[in-house]
Design brief:
By secondary structure, the chain is mainly α. It has 13 helices and no strands. Helix 3 runs parallel beside helix 6.
Length: 306
């Protein structure tokens, strides 16, 4: 039986701050542009359940990715980054499958509880239930099973959708029972930053992915063009966030998220100047944490002016 340290490694806890960033932003937007007369326990309960569901989905995705990349031969001695649990033999494929089933079931229960708590029983509840099932499927099918979409270069679209549009807009709707088109700006902003994190990962692994038949967006574009694509992702994200802040401006705390720009600028300079893909490994953590702290600062600004 695998030690707890091996399971914690397989959970890849360092990915969780990025996974909850869109939930934090969506909740803050729901608070700031609130349609309730007063903030009550429902806000805390819904936020907690949404965070729990997002964390379980991210862990499920990480477990499926560990097993899927092992099955497809992508995890090998040529791979850059931390050694995976199944690849190293610390956790057997059968044990990983059981863990995926348990985590998937917990995510489903948490998600259903969240949707019913927030929306009751209605047609909208069914729509969100379908979105939840799609999220579970997306978490599993990224690299696991036959024809995983991550091996066809569709991971970027999935991250933009679930870490941005669904994460931010869905959380906002669960809080307010309302949708505003303007919310798409921060949704795209943080979705594109999260896509940037995936792109750094794919830039780092571009040589091994190409050799293993994992055709990510970085492999499709080539190393140099994928660096340009990375710059486009980050620049477009900033434009979205600047536009939203300018349009909704009421007080200076709303611009507090700009404090993260120096770290983002240093990251961009390092990526654009890189010649060796393996040298980008530290930038994966840096962009993920920068995105998380930007989400916190962005959300704090909204709450302070509410």
């Amino acid at each position: 039986m695998a030690d707890m340290k091996h399971w914690l490694s397989a959970f890849r806890l360092r990915t969780l701050p990025l996974a909850v960033s869109s939930i934090i932003v969506g909740s803050a937007l729901g608070y700031e542009r609130s349609f309730y007369a007063a903030v009550g326990p429902d806000l805390r309960i819904i936020t907690s359940l949404t965070l729990l569901t997002a964390i379980l989905l991210q862990i499920l995705s990480n477990l499926a990715n560990d097993l899927g990349d092992h099955q497809h031969g992508t995890d090998n001695k040529e791979r850059v980054g931390p050694q995976r649990a199944v690849q190293s033999g610390a956790i057997s494929p059968a044990a990983m499958k059981r863990a995926m089933l348990i985590c998937g079931a917990l995510a489903f229960v948490s998600g259903v509880t969240l949707i019913i708590t927030a929306l009751g029983l209605s047609v909208t509840t069914l729509v969100f239930l379908l979105l939840g099932l799609l999220a579970i499927g997306a978490a599993v099918k990224y690299t696991f099973g036959k024809n995983p979409y991550g091996y066809a270069g569709l991971g970027d679209v999935s991250v933009l959708l679930f870490f941005g549009i669904v994460g931010v807009c869905g959380t906002f709707y669960l809080h307010t029972k309302h949708f505003e088109p303007l919310i798409l700006l921060p949704a795209f902003g943080f979705g594109l930053l999260s896509t940037g994190v995936l792109n750094v990962n794919n830039l780092r692994d571009i040589k091994n992915d190409k050799a293993s038949g994992k055709i990510t967006m970085a492999v499709r574009l080539g190393f140099d063009s994928a660096k340009g694509y990375h710059g486009l992702l980050i620049a477009t994200a900033l434009i979205c966030l600047i536009a939203f802040t300018a349009i909704t401006f009421r007080s200076m705390p709303q611009w507090g998220w700009l404090i993260t720009l120096p770290a983002l600028g240093t990251h961009m300079r390092t990526v654009l100047r890189a010649h060796d893909p393996s040298s980008l490994d530290p930038q994966l953590k840096k962009l993920a944490l920068t995105t998380f702290f930007m989400a916190l600062a962005f959300s704090a600004g909204l709450i302070l002016v509410a």
